[in-house]
Amino acid sequence: MARLLEIAGSKKWLLILSGTLVLLHAFMALIPYIIIFYILQELIQFGTATFITYNYLLWALMAIAVSFILLYASGMASHVAAFNILYELRCKIAEKLGRLPMGYINNSSTGALKKILADDVERIEEFVAHSIPDFVKGVALPVIIITYLFFVDWRLALISFVPLIIVFVFVTVVFSSKENKEAMQLYHDSLEKMNAGIIEFVHALPVMKIFGQSASAFSKYNDEVQRFDQLVKEWVKRQSPPWAVFMSFINNATLPVLALGLYFYFQNSLTLPVLFLFLILGVGYIRPILALSSLGSQLSMINMGVKRMDEILFQTKEQIGGDFPFPNTAAIAFEQVSFAYDEGIRVLDNVTFQMKPNSITALVGPSGSGKSTAAQLIARYFEVNSGTITIDNTPIQSIQIEALYNHISFVFQDNMMFYQTIRENIAMDGNYSDHEIIKAAKTARCHKFIQKLPKGYDTHFGDKGIHLSGGEQQRIQLARAVLKDAPILILDEATAFSDPENEQQIMLAMNELIKDKTVLIIAHRLSTITQADQIVVFDRGKVVGNDSHSELLQNCPVYQKMWNAYTRSKDFSIQL
User: Fold this and answer.
1) Of 276, 297, 315, which closes a domain?
2) Is 333's pLDDT higher than 90?
């Protein structure tokens, strides 16, 4: 609870206001019951309604009206606070994720991050908006009622106090036990894995349909759903017996009061209005206690979600940059760089090569040889295990992180399009004029097909069936790079999924894009990089060749093998 109030931050005053209002609501909600007690006394004493009786009824109606107004105001305050907390919390987590190394993002499943940003934050909103007012009411109303009843008749008040003790013991024993905490941990872990399986299942649907596979055949999705279902069933099975006993007791909590009250009444030590008062208020304060009984399970689930949020916000180290601005020239050097994603096999092993300013360097090699990893290390997607990467003799760790990102453009082999307008997809929230965006689109050879879209640059990608081919999306990526105009350009398999027509357009765009830039190209189609200033050949994480195309054909067996395989593939045809 204390951590939730800490999360509330500047909106804490709204929660305090909500709690104060619901406290006043609890007090006002008690008044009609007390008035009924006095009305009964008046009726028994005089045998008929008097002027005072009607006044009591008027005061009761006024108390009910004020009580509802206070409850409404409390709900408004708590909901405003909840939605503000939800917004600020999601922004903080998203901003922190943006400052974390890519290694953390890659090692975290999409389902786990989605659960934290969506489900766990949503639970906090529901708790703040509904459960905190219910908690205050559930604590305040019974305390006020029991205190008042002790002044009326301490004997029946003592019996009425028993349900409070039972609730406290039940919540403490059942929901705060070690077994319950372990069950909550398993529940959240299973839910994250199931979310990841669902996302993967949705992405795999086209392939599964082609091969006639059903959801049950998708093992990751099916196994995680069954695992989650099993955990929930085990939880229900374990919690049902104590919960049934608890609910049975609470729903019959007025029976001891009734039995003892009737005994005292027939012994002439208790009046009938007092007995009615205890029976009415006994029912009245048990209802908020029932709301408290479910609070334990909610807090258990929320605490696990808050723990995961705190791991991102406080325990995961941010990527820290240096104090140096970006150097004047974009000369890049790898000096004995080694890197491994996990402890074990190195992806890069003692890699050394240099890239001169305004030159074109191509990285080639078999799949898994470390080409893409080397390119990603320049942008500090990961941190090297040993060795150094420098730009103009300045280690990249010493350069301001934002300055480093602002001076590197990346064109990936996997296209990423946002469900926004084409204009927004190109600008990427940058402050660019329409003229600059259109000029970049023309340079990237995508202006013509954009104009053919229903609303041109204002067409929403993904809206009403508006989609682009892989090659067209690739050219949108190139337009982003043109608009950014960074001195370092990294092209990772930029034509990997393009048809011949799109490949030609992409190559024309790249020829304009690479002017006056330090360019790193990763390519499997060797014909696209024969004119590069240097070609660095990777094999099993090591540099086995570094020269021009003609020299490598003479001196590098790995490159010779790759070139021969590439030239033979061009002559391949299916024999019918």
Assistant:
1) 315
2) yes
333 in a structural domain: no
Helices (H), 516-556: 549-555
DSSP state of 130: I
CA dist., res. 22 & res. 254, Å (int)? 25
Q: Closest Cα partner for 77 from 137, 24, 129?
A: 129
**Mean pLDDT (whole number) for 117-128:** 78
CA distance 193 to 195: 5
Reported as a single tens digit per residue, the pLDDT across 418-449 is 888 889 888 887 888 989 999 888 888 888 88
47 Ramachandran zone, left/alpha/beta (phi>0; psi -120 to 50): left
Residue-wise pLDDT for 219-269, tens only, equals 666 777 788 788 878 777 777 777 777 777 766 777 778 888 888 888 888
Asked whether residue 298 falls in the same domain as residue 403, the answer is no
Together in a domain, 262 and 378: no
In a domain, 228, yes or no: yes
Percentages of the chain per state (helix, strand, coil), in multiples of 5: 65, 10, 25
Residues 348 and 294 both lie in one domain: no
Residue where the block lists tokens 């890239």: 355
CA distance 277 to 35: 10
Q: Is residue 268 part of a domain?
A: yes
Run of H or E residues at 102: helix 102-107
Is residue 340 within 8 A of residue 346, CB to CB? The reply is yes
Residue 211 predicted with pLDDT over 60: no
Domain range for 185: 2-315
295 and 384 belong to one structural domain? no
Domain CATH number, residue 413: 3.40.50.300
The set of residues, in sequence order, having a beta carbon less than 8 Å from that of 51 and lying 6+ positions away, is none
Cα 21 to Cα 44: distance, rounded to the nearest angstrom: 36
Number of structural domains in the chain: 2
Task: Give the type of residue at 75.
Answer: G
Q: Which of 328, 435, 332 has the alpha carbon at shortest distance from 389?
A: 332
Rounded to a whole number of angstroms, the CA Rg of the chain reads: 35
Residue 567 has a CB neighbour count (10 Å cut-off) of 11
CA neighbor of 497 nearest in space, from 474, 467, 522, 514 = 474
Confidence tier at 545 by pLDDT (50, 70, 90) = very high
User: Distance (Å, rounded) from C-alpha 412 to C-alpha 149?
Assistant: 72
Report pLDDT for 219: 65
Examine the pLDDT at 102 and tell me if it is beyond 80: no
Token digits for 27? 């007090």
- Interacting residues of 136 by C-beta distance below 8 A, sequence separation 6+: 18, 19, 22, 23, 26
Q: Are 125 and 86 in contact (CB under 8 A)?
A: yes
